[in-house]
Amino acid sequence: MQRIRFPHLLAGLVAVVIVAGFVASPVPQPQNVTTLVERVDALETVVAEQAAISSQLEARLAELEIAVGIMTDASPPTPAPTPTLVYTDTWELAKSSDNRLTYRRDPDWILNEDEPGSLGFSLPKTGQALGLYWDLPPDLAQNLRSDETWLKEFQEEMLGNTGDSQLVSTMEVSLAGHEALALEFTATDESGFGARAIFVFYDCSTANSCGLVLMNIGAENLFTEADWQLLDAFVANMEFAAGAVANRNANLRSCPSTSCSIEGRVFTGQPLDLVAQNPDGTWYKLRSGEWIAAWLVDNAPENLPVIESPTGL
Q: Are 232 and 86 in contact (CB under 8 A)?
C-alpha cells in the first residue's frame, strides 16, 4: 500500500521556502545573514526530530494495520474452517426391526417407519424428515448417472404424486467414505405445499444400493453444511449385519422340498436376499420367489417371517 511520506514532504516545503526567500529578497546585510543561517539550522533540527518521530509512528501504524488486517495489498484472511459437528456423543444406538442394520440416532428423532429395508424419521429440532432405504437395486447410482431413462423413471416414481417437481442439481459427493450421487429436487403439490429434498445413492453392498433422503419443508429452504454433516454422521454410524450367502453351489427350488422343480442356481459366496422361512426353518425363501435349503446358507438373518409350506409338503 502506497503511503504519503509526511517527513519528506515537510522537508521539501522548507527547502522551497528557503530558496524562494533567497531569490526574492535583496542582498541581505551581514547581521541578517547570520540570523537566517541560525534559523535554517534550527528548522533543520526540528525537521530531523519530526522525521524520527514520524518514522516511529509509521512503524507502529504498520504493526497495527497488520494486526487488524486492513493492509490493502495484503491477502484476505483465511476464514476459519467450519467445525465438524460431533453427533455420536449424544446419539443412541438402535437396530432395525429386521435385525439387518445397527445405527445411531438423535434421541429427539421420531421414528415413523421401521419396515424391512427402510427407516423413516421426523426431526423436530429442524422440522425435517429423514429416510433410509437399503434394498434398492445394485448399481443404482451408476445407472442414474449414465441413463436418463432411469432418472426419469425415478423422478416419476418417487415424486410423481407431489405435483410439479424439478431437478435442481446433480452432485458427486462422499458420505463416510462412500462415493455417492446426490440429486436435489423441489416439489409442489396441487394445494401449494412445497418441499426441497436431497436423494443420495451409493452402493452399500454387492447385492444392493442404499439411498438417503433428507427433506426440508418449503421449496425455498436451502440445504446447509450442517445438513451434509448430519447425513455423513448418520452413514458413518450405520453397520449392516453380515448378509446371507450361499456356502456352496446350490439349486434354487420352486417350493421348500428337493422334490420341487429347479428354478435356478447360485454359486459359492453369492449374496442371498432372504425374506421368509418354512415352519421348521429348514428352507429359506428368496425375495425373487425361489427356495433354498437352509444348510446351504451362511449368515441367515434371525427371526425371518414364517410362511406355511404349500399343501402336501
A: no
